[in-house]
Write a structure and sequence with these properties.
The structure holds 3 protein chains of 3 kinds.
Chain A (H helix, E strand, L loop, with lengths): L1 H6 L14 H5 L6 E3 L5 E3 L12 H15 L2 H4 L9 E2 L4 E2 L12 E2 L2 E2 H4 L33 H9 L9 H8 L2 H4 L15 H13 L8
Antiparallel strand pairs in A: 1-2, 3-4, 5-6
Helix pairs in contact in A: 3-9
Chain B lengths: L1 E2 L4 H10 L13 H9 L8 E4 L3 E3 L5 E5 L8 H13 L6 E5 L4 H4 L9 H28 L6 E4 L2 E4 L4 E4 H8 L28 H5 L15 E6 L6 E7 L1 H4 L4 E8 L6 E2 L9 E7 L2 H8 L3 E6 L3 E6 L5 E6 L6 H12 L4 E6 L2 H6 L3 E9 L11 E6 L4 E5 L4 H12 L6 E5 L13 H13 L3 E4 L2 H6 L6 E10 L5 E11 L16 E8 L14 H18 L4 H14 L10 H15 L5 H4 L1 E9 L2 E12 L2 E12 L6 H21 L4 E2 L2 E2 L18 E6 L15 H15 L19
Parallel strand pairs in B: 1-2, 4-5, 9-22, 12-15, 20-21, 24-25, 28-31
Antiparallel strand pairs in B: 2-3, 3-4, 6-7, 7-8, 9-13, 10-14, 11-13, 15-16, 17-25, 18-23, 19-20, 19-22, 23-24, 26-27, 27-28, 29-30
Chain C lengths: L1 E5 L2 E5 L7 H9 L17 E4 L2 E4 L5 H4 L3 E3 L11 H8 L9 H14 L5 H8 L9 H16 L6
Parallel strand pairs in C: 1-5
Antiparallel strand pairs in C: 1-2, 3-4, 3-5
Helix pairs in contact in C: 3-6, 4-5
The chains are: A mainly alpha, B alpha+beta, C alpha+beta.
Chain lengths: ~220, ~750, ~160
């Protein structure tokens, strides 16, 4: 199973919507993920104040919540299975088919930032904004679209698919402003299915109980 | 100062030459002169000698040709002056071309629409050019005291070979302008053309690619304010009340008020369509300030209820039309169309005994086709500049037919027509939309109220949701076959909201013994108007799709089947008033068959569809070749055959056909406008899908039938048959027939009959 | 007053920094070659170069342009001789012409970053620019021709 996943070239260095509590980050020393045979998370080295207490039932339950957020339009639209982002609450292919490009920032006259400004543009059906608006890059595509909960959970904690990030980097990276954009999507767009706080809680619960992947 | 020859003979010539002007040539007002002087156009050239309304030449030999017709991308600003230049015999590269002012007396009917520009100006402009040349030669003959018959011209020079004398036109222009305009000067033999029938570049090409101010939106005027409209958010609503207090506090805002387009009982002409009679106007210094302030308006709307419009009757008099107040939704519209389709309808044409023929048929094929409202989506949103005072009005902007709007404006403003000056800018697209001058009237009323020069600007959303759409159409076609699969009867019954599209006397009428055409209409408050090839743009989709399916049912090749029907119409025409020329219709089919390699190697490579249509006086046929790209049907290649008579400007004509083909592909696959409770569901390009670069074919190969027939138009005729050819090719690609436009929308399941 | 570098000239603009660059150019500076088409970054008629990128000026605020170089169609070349302008004229691309400035400005970024674009590259670069007249075939050909002119050293860039 691990082999199968790691053979896919679906990586990302950018977790747009992974929100991790800053307090937790502060306490983390050198730490890295490796995979146990039961697909749960193993802490290699840690001086964290919140050591992981494995609980597969709680973990899987929490991930189911995480999954509904990641697969919502606000998250999935920039984690497409192809090289064109998705758009709208129905996650249709982005009009005018902007291409991912090598760095995830578009190509030629069709770079994300040509339309997507540092902040949301006012008005309905205008481009939402963020200073760092982009897709995952071509060599780390981090696809959400089409992933089952099990596939996505395993992908998220696999260093070979998450940009070779250890937990610290992962947490630090997840804390950037682009993540919050999901809850500030601009006029007329639906929010992810739960609040930012609820999502954070589910995400941390999932991680802190061993990041188990659901059966399907 | 400008010299203008106003002698009786010249005026008589103009009257004769502007044949299509009809009753518009009433008097010469002298307006054009003052207009030009005011505009400062001639300031740099003090001595324009006018030879006919279309030609001006200075003594230092600057030659200017006036384009009478508004330019919206059909390239008339190049092609019409080319015709003048050809007959005048000048070096095209040295000619200055200028858009004329609105002056129907001097410059003829001046409307861009119905693919009529070239057709209606062909003879007058040839006459103008040939007459002016004759006048210049007469002046030279007088100067040189030689018989005019001994003179020749070449590229703007006059020669007297015997005495070895020559001069340029400018040498004789002053004298020539005083010579009565000769009548009935023979124009050139069309075989001798060296400007016309040769590709000439767009005279405004350089200005376009360098961003010069050309369009209405670019027009600037001292002290000009910007206005934006606020119209009801739904068809069937009207203004109840508004609170502008917050708006008026916004920076740059001058005023907020309502305007009423037409007073009660105003007799509307055919192009006086208006969707919302009372709109709000926000007036301010800059566009962005007005856009921002407009959002602060608090407006209450209320149901408009049924409204009675007073329309000018076609044959004089007036008639009352009731516009229903319903807040329409697309599903309900479809339901109504199905209901009306089963009711008795207006008989449009009947040949033979179709009822009996259908009764006796061995097989009946029946299919229903539907098409949605379409918005024009001109790239330049509606806008117009107006400066209206108690004494006069100046209006500048994009408009297809100034001569149609000016009388309305005169009535609304209560100003004499000669106090209203309309200048036409280049238009960022038209497609029929700018034949309706409501936005010009609105601009004028806003300027009068604001007591300032004002540019009215529609946002894209204002533009798309205003109305004046291609109507929503349906048509049911039935064909009766005998036991040998011969076509014995044909029946079309079409309807629409608010009008049907059926052109009863067009092919295949005339080719079938028993023929019946009927139509019905559903009143609506959703306003409609001309949209690139009105009615034909639906017919050619529905009828040509049906013929394709019919050919299959008859076991025939779709081109051969059409040619056989045309042969019948030629040899033994049925009925009267058949509108098409059989040979020319068959001609484009044969040409497209040959050029597309029909039944050749390409047939294996592509899913191919064919269609042909005649409308707006020209003939067009296309073969559309579809491949599957990224799992989706993609129109990769199109072969087109066109008969529009003499092709004035071949490369530009090719461009026009290519554009029409791409427009046809786009609208057939993606075009459509729906409503929910009167609100338009697609108000900008995020939801109103326009064909884009990656969806455009790799090639559109255009072939013109070569003949010497007087030229007819090209803006519209190539557009309609694209729909039918795309439908046919999609069928080959997917195995499914396409009955509902746009073709990317869910298709109804049709039982096989 | 906000100083803005447009076509190598400094303009002092009296406008709200939130004002879209499009309206600054059109209403304040008087450069109207940049067109208003949709106002929501859908059509590309308003494309200008901001530090060399083909931004859509209808959604790009004045504040974003401060300290950067703005180039509009009027400043693309000194004598209307950018290879794209030459190619556009050679192939007589325009019909109504309204979208063409935006098309050319988008194509200019493509040619700067890809000297010999394929049809696919052109699709990827130009799918954001709508031409309602449907001149896409000629736009495509003109970009190929311009890239050829550029490689041969024709034009000024």
């Amino acid at each position: 199973m691990n082999k199968q996943i790691s053979n896919r070239r679906n990586y990302s260095s950018n977790f747009r919507l992974l929100i991790v509590i800053g307090l937790l980050c502060g306490g983390i020393g050198i730490m890295a993920f490796t995979m146990n045979k039961d697909n749960s998370l193993k802490v290699v080295k840690s001086n964290s104040l919140s050591p992981i207490k494995k609980d597969s039932v709680t973990s899987v339950k929490a991930f189911q919540q995480v999954y509904t957020v990641l697969m919502s339009a606000r998250c999935m639209n920039c984690h497409p299975s192809g090289n064109v982002p998705l758009q709208g609450d129905d996650s249709h292919l982005h009009t005018m088919l902007p291409q991912r490009g090598i760095d995830g920032k578009g190509v030629y006259a069709m770079k994300c930032a040509n339309c997507h400004q540092p902040t949301n543009t006012a008005g309905l059906h205008t481009p939402p904004g963020n200073p760092n608006w982009h897709l995952p890059p071509a060599n780390m595509r981090m696809v959400f679209q089409g992933r089952t909960p099990r596939q996505l959970a395993k992908q998220l904690i696999d260093p070979k698919q998450n940009g070779h990030k250890d937990l610290k980097k992962l947490i630090a990276h997840a804390d950037d402003g682009l993540v919050l954009a999901g809850w500030n999507p601009g006029e007329g767009r639906t929010l992810p299915p739960m609040s930012h706080a609820a999502f954070k809680k589910a995400w941390l619960t999932w991680l802190n109980t061993g990041a188990f992947a659901p059966a399907k | 100062m400008e010299k203008t020859n106003t002698d009786f003979t010249r005026r008589a010539f103009l009257k004769a030459s502007a044949i299509a002007g009809g009753g518009l040539l009433l008097h010469f007002s002298g307006l054009a002169k003052s207009v030009l002087a005011e505009r400062g156009i001639d300031a740099a050239s003090p001595e324009w000698n006018e030879l006919t309304g279309y030609i001006k030449i200075t003594s230092d030999n600057i030659i200017k040709i006036i384009c009478p017709n508004p330019e919206f991308g059909q390239n008339v600003m190049t092609s019409l002056p080319m015709v003048v230049a050809e007959e005048l015999d000048v070096d095209w590269k040295k000619v200055i071309v200028e858009m004329g002012p609105h002056d129907n007396t001097k410059l003829g009917p001046q409307f861009t629409g119905g693919s009529n520009s070239m057709r209606m100006y062909w003879k007058p402009l040839r006459q103008a050019g040939a007459s002016a040349r004759q006048m210049l030669m007469q002046a030279a003959a007088q100067n040189w005291a030689v018989p005019v018959e001994e003179l020749t011209t070449k590229a703007g020079e006059i020669y007297h070979v015997k005495s070895n004398r020559k001069g340029v036109y400018g040498d004789f222009a002053a004298k020539a302008s005083g010579i009565p305009v000769p009548k009935d000067v023979n124009p050139k033999n069309v075989k001798d053309f060296n400007i016309v029938r040769h590709s000439q570049k767009n005279v405004e090409g350089t200005k376009i690619v360098s961003g010069k101010p050309l369009f209405g939106l670019d027009y600037k005027h001292e002290g000009m304010l910007i206005a934006m409209p606020v119209h009801p958010p739904a068809f069937g609503l009207k203004l109840k009340s508004f609170d502008a207090s917050q708006t008026l506090k916004m920076p740059g805002i001058k005023d907020v008020f309502t305007i009423k387009l037409y007073e009660d009982g105003f007799e509307q002409g055919g192009f006086d369509t208006r969707t919302f009679n009372v709109i709000l106007a926000v007036v301010g210094k800059t566009t962005w300030e007005v856009m921002q302030a407009r959002k602060k308006l608090v407006v209450e709307w209320e149901p408009a209820g049924d409204v009675t419009n007073t329309m000018q009757g076609r044959g004089g008099g007036k008639r009352e039309v009731i516009v229903p107040g319903e807040l329409e939704s697309t599903e309900k519209q479809m339901e109504k169309m199905r209901e009306y389709a089963s009711k008795p309808a207006q008989l449009l044409r009947k040949d033979g005994d179709p009822e009996t023929a259908f009764k006796n048929a061995a097989q009946i094929l029946e299919r229903t086709y539907n098409a949605p409202f379409l918005a024009h989506n001109c790239m330049e949103p509606m806008n117009f500049f107006a400066h209206v005072t108690d004494e006069k009005a100046l209006l500048v902007g994009p408009l297809q037919a100034p001569g149609w709007t000016q009388p309305t404006l005169a009535k609304v403003l209560k100003l004499p027509a000669d106090k209203i000056e309309i200048q036409m800018t280049r238009m960022g697209g038209g497609f029929g939309r700018r034949a309706y001058g409501h936005y010009l009237i609105e601009a004028a009323l806003i300027s009068r109220q604001a007591k300032a020069p004002v540019k009215l600007i529609y946002s894209r959303e204002d533009d798309t949701t205003y109305g004046i759409y291609r109507p929503m159409y349906t048509a049911t076609y039935r064909a009766a076959l005998d036991e040998n699969k011969n076509l014995i009867a044909f029946h079309v019954k079409g309807g629409g909201i608010p009008e049907h599209a059926i052109a009863a006397n067009r092919f295949p009428a005339g080719a079938i013994d028993h023929y019946l055409a009927e139509g019905w209409e559903i009143p609506s408050n959703i306003t409609i108007g001309a949209f690139r090839a009105p009615r034909s743009n639906f017919n050619a989709a529905a009828e040509q799709s049906f013929l394709d399916e019919l050919a299959e049912a008859m076991g025939k090749d779709p081109i051969e089947m059409r040619l056989e029907l045309l042969k019948r119409a030629k040899e033994n025409p049925v009925g009267k008033n058949n509108e098409y020329d059989v040979d020319r219709y068959a001609g484009v089919l044969k040409l497209v068959k040959e050029k597309s390699g029909w039944n050749g190697a390409e047939h294996k490579k592509y899913s191919r569809g064919v269609a042909a249509y005649f409308c707006h006086n020209s003939y067009a046929a296309h073969v559309v070749d579809i491949t599957i790209k990224d799992g989706q049907p993609y129109v990769e290649r199109v072969t087109s055959a066109i008969d529009c008579g003499i092709v004035i400007n071949p490369d530009a004509a090719t461009n026009m056909v290519q554009g029409a083909v791409i427009d046809g592909i786009g609208n057939s696959l993606y075009g459509g406008l729906t409503h929910k409770d009167g609100v338009v569901a697609q108000n900008n390009f995020h939801s109103y899908r326009i064909i884009r670069m990656h969806e455009a074919p790799k090639s559109v190969d255009v072939h013109f039938v070569q003949n010497d027939i007087d030229p007819t138009g090209l803006g519209e005729p190539p557009f309609p048959p694209v729909f039918g050819a795309v439908a046919g090719a999609l069928y080959k690609a997917t195995g499914k027939r396409y009955y509902q436009q746009p073709f990317t929308s869910p298709q109804p399941v049709i039982p096989t009959v | 007053m906000i100083a803005l570098n447009i076509n190598k000239k400094i303009y002092h603009i009296d406008a709200d920094p939130e004002t879209p660059l499009l309206w600054v150019l059109r209403d304040h500076v008087g450069l109207v070659g940049t067109k208003f088409g949709c106002g929501v970054a859908q059509c590309g008629a308003c494309v200008v170069h901001l530090n060399g990128e083909a931004v859509r000026s209808c959604v790009t605020k004045l504040s974003r342009a401060v300290g950067k170089k703005v180039v509009t169609i009027e400043g693309l070349s000194e004598k209307n001789d950018h290879p794209l302008q030459k190619a556009w004229l050679e192939l007589d691309v325009s019909q109504c012409g309204y979208c063409q400035a935006g098309q050319i400005m988008s194509a200019a970024v493509l040619l700067k970053e890809n000297k010999n674009p394929t049809d696919q590259d052109i699709n990827d670069a130009m799918a954001g620019n709508i031409c309602r007249c449907g001149t896409y075939l000629r736009i495509r050909e003109a970009i190929h021709l311009a890239s050829e002119l550029q490689r041969k050293g024709g034009g000024n860039s």
